[in-house]
Specification:
Layout: H1 3-16, H2 22-28, H3 43-85, H4 91-138, H5 148-198, H6 200-229, E1 238-242, E2 254-256, E3 261-265, E4 271-281, E5 284-294, E6 299-302, E7 317-324, E8 327-334
Parallel strand pairs: 2-8
Antiparallel strand pairs: 1-3, 3-6, 4-5, 4-7, 7-8
């Protein structure tokens, strides 16, 4: 058979082949077991296909807005990646590169989801076209069919959704071009990172710089604590103020039972320690520990109630042993 006749016969066989209504059946009657035949198509099926296409058109509008947001994010991430690729290696840059790579992966996953959604809407539109073609082709011959008006409405909806599909496809193509730039920036960031890792000198400098920074931070915290608790220029210093009825006695070796023992921090650091109060009475020894924390230039008074009463019994001995970071002292309580 000559080439022209063979092509003509193939074209004629293609035109006379029955239209497949498998997708159209899933569109208008999802629960049907067998596919529709052209004789079984009713205006109800056309109305159902029209409603599905209108829903798909609204979905395509949402898809266009998502593609526009993806385009803006892709351009921003591409510019950010190019800037990071030209940045000097460092710990902060490493964190930023990790964040940029993770964001690029999210954008690619979002684009794949939008592509799948567009394919789903495109299959709905193709199924509606097959349904309309079967209605107009195989049922042609009736002069006035009750579904002609519904078929015209479906034809207009198909034309409208085709236009929306083209616009959505253009938006997705623009977003895909932006993602290509994101991939280029991602490759540049990975290449620079690999070069730093492969070069032992640069990698040692980068790794050592990170460890040195951590060590300096720890040393700084320790110095701040030392400066707060025990500063070299003004360490905490314990001073006692004792009130005695007899002026001739030692100022802070003894304290009267009814008087208060005042502890004073004469330095610029925090004074931390404790006071141990020991009471010897009738061969029995009792001890009591009181914690002491004094702010710089602060003071605290131990009253007679703190060292076991304001009137010690005869034959009893009360001693207050003070141990702090600013010095130590022993004070006897006398009646």
């Amino acid at each position: 058979m000559p080439e022209d006749e063979r092509l003509g016969a193939a074209h004629e066989a293609f035109e006379t082949a029955p239209t497949s209504l498998e997708n159209a059946t899933r569109l208008v009657e999802p629960m049907r077991l067998n596919n529709l035949t052209p004789e079984e198509i009713t205006p109800r099926h056309l109305r159902r296909a029209n409603r599905e296409l209108r829903r798909a058109r609204r979905g395509l509008g949402t898809l266009q807005r998502a593609a526009q947001r993806l385009l803006s994010q892709g351009r921003a991430e591409a510019q950010r990646g190019q800037r990071l690729a030209r940045t000097a290696p460092g710990q902060r840059r490493a964190h930023q590169v990790q964040t940029a790579l993770r964001k690029a992966s999210e954008l690619n996953a979002l684009f794949a989801a939008l592509e799948d959604e567009l394919s789903r809407y495109s299959r709905r539109a193709a199924a509606a076209r097959d349904l309309l073609a079967a209605w107009e082709g195989d049922k042609l011959g009736l002069a006035r069919r009750p579904g002609n008006r519904v078929a015209n409405t479906l034809r207009g909806t198909i034309v409208t959704i085709s236009r929306v599909q083209r616009t959505t496809r253009e938006r997705l193509d623009e977003a895909q071009r932006a993602l290509v730039h994101v991939s280029v920036a991602e490759e540049a960031m990975r290449r620079d990172t690999d070069l730093v890792r492969l070069d032992p000198v640069n990698f040692a400098r980068f790794a050592g710089r990170g460890r040195l920074g951590v060590r300096l931070a720890i040393v700084g915290v320790l110095l701040a604590l030392v400066a707060l608790i025990y500063p070299p220029w003004g360490p905490p210093h314990l001073q006692l103020s004792c009130t005695l009825p007899t002026a001739g006695e030692a100022a802070c070796a003894t304290v009267h039972a009814t008087s208060g023992l005042r502890l004073i921090n004469g330095g610029n650091g925090v004074l931390v320690g404790w006071a141990t109060i020991t009471v010897d009475e009738a061969g029995t020894t009792n001890s009591q520990i009181i914690p002491i924390v004094l702010a710089p230039r602060g003071s605290r008074t131990l009253t007679c109630g703190d060292y076991s009463g304001c009137a010690p019994a005869a034959g009893s001995a009360v001693h207050v042993q003070i141990t702090t970071s600013g010095g130590s002292s022993v004070v006897a309580v006398v009646p």
